[in-house]
Amino acid sequence: MPIRLENYIGKIPDFPKPGILFYDISPLLAHSAAWAEAVEQLAAVIAPYKPDLLLGIESRGFLLAAPLALKMECGFVMVRKRGKLPGETIAYEYSLEYGTDALEIKKDLIKPGQRVAILDDLLATGGTANATMELLNRVGANVVGAAFLIELEGLGGGEKLNRLPFTALMRYPA
User: Fold this and answer.
1) Which residue among 21, 116, 133, 163 has the highest number of C-beta atoms inside a 10 angstrom radius?
2) What is the CATH number of the domain that holds 82?
3) Number of domains in the chain
């Protein structure tokens, strides 16, 4: 019987604040067959992009991109919040509703023209994914696509990706 990934997503009301329904991937990660199925499905959607590198967005994107990179025999790079990576980094600052934030990658890990696919657990408003894409463009990467476990529909995340092809394995209303 095929594994339905939706059966392994927890729904936590009022987290991290009242009125928010949080979609928790922890049960999926705790079930080896469900996690393996998620990696298989992500591999199927990412493989046609023929990436050289997979980029995981901090922090749950690491949990998807790292095993997927091993399976696809390509490299893995982390994008992190400012100040979390050692050594020389390249930063991209972006606007939030109330202020700014910044993402960084290690300098010289991505060569100009390398084919990079973006991975994260959740696409909501698209702000972080778009900032990641802009950071990759800044270093000369060829951003070929993106994949997410979950997309929250109705928040405009996909539109912020500026026509970058992307897939979400599951979709839920925001």
Assistant:
1) 116
2) 3.40.50.2020
3) 1
How would you class 94 by CB atoms within 10 Å of its CB: exposed for 0-12, middle for 13-18, buried for 19 or more? middle
User: Which pLDDT tens digit goes with each residue over 17-48?
Assistant: 999 999 999 999 999 999 999 999 999 999 99
Which residue bears the tokens 């973006």? 118
Domain that holds residue 88: 38-173
Active-site hit among 4, 73, 80, 97: 97
Is residue 169 in some structural domain? yes
Active-site annotation holds for 80 = no
97 tagged catalytic: yes
User: Does any domain span residue 2?
Assistant: no
